[in-house]
Amino acid sequence: MSLFSKKTEPSIDPELREHFENAQARVREKKRLYRHLVLFVAGAILLIIINLVLGIGKDYTLFNIDWFVWAILLWTFFFLVHFINVFILNRFMGKEWEQQQIDKLMLKQKNRISKLEDKILESAAPLEKKSPSLTEKPSAPLDPNTPL
Q1: How many Å apart are CA 90 and CA 129, to the nearest integer?
Q2: Who wins on pLDDT, 129 or 49?
Q3: How many domains are there within the chain?
Q4: Are residues 85 and 23 in the same domain?
Q5: CA-based, 20 to 30 A from 113: which of 56, 82, 126, 143?
Q6: Distance of CA 118 to CAs 23, 111, 113, 130, Å?
Q7: What pLDDT, on a 0 to 100 scale, did the predictor assign at position 19?
Q8: What residues are paired with 65 via a beta bridge?
């Protein structure tokens, strides 16, 4: 082995690599969700402290409910949407579902193409019977000296 030779990466089965990349993406999604949960809890505690302990914004209410409660409820809604996206929708509409949909659409497209090809072949067959072929020899030999 030479000092300046290029290192070759070990070849990995493409299917195994795809599974690994899907697992990595899934772990990143869960990590982001847990990070969102920590920020949500810390932010909610901070909003409560700002309003109740420090007294900032005590006069602001909406429907007789303090503003920080509305902020926490809104943030809770966003967190629940994130949770549903990661744990519920991903199971039903994950990579396997996506691959099934792609396969289904590709099969449908192949069927349409084959039907169109069949129609083209059927419509071209009567034309071939009507038109004389170029390989047929003329009935009388042509004289090279006569004009066309």
Answers
A1: 58
A2: 49
A3: 2
A4: yes
A5: 126
A6: 43, 11, 9, 20
A7: 77
A8: 62
Contacts of 56 (CB under 8 A, 6+ apart): 50
Specify which residues 61 forms β-bridges with: 66
Q: Tell me the residue range of the domain where 25 lies.
A: 14-92
Overall pTM > 0.90: no
Please write the tens of the pLDDT for every residue from 99-147: 788 888 888 888 888 888 888 888 877 665 555 555 555 566 667 777 6
- Residue 102, domain member (yes or no): yes
Res 27: pLDDT: 86
Do 27 and 81 belong together in one domain?
Answer: yes
Contact present, 122 and 73 (Cβ < 8 Å): no
Length of the chain: 148
DSSP string spanning 27-76? HHHHHHHHHHHHHHHHHHHHHHIIIIIS-TTTT-EETTEEHHHHHHHHHH
Instruction: State the pLDDT at residue 41.
Output: 92
pLDDT at 66: 75
Encoded tokens for 136: 């047929």
Same domain, 26 and 37: yes
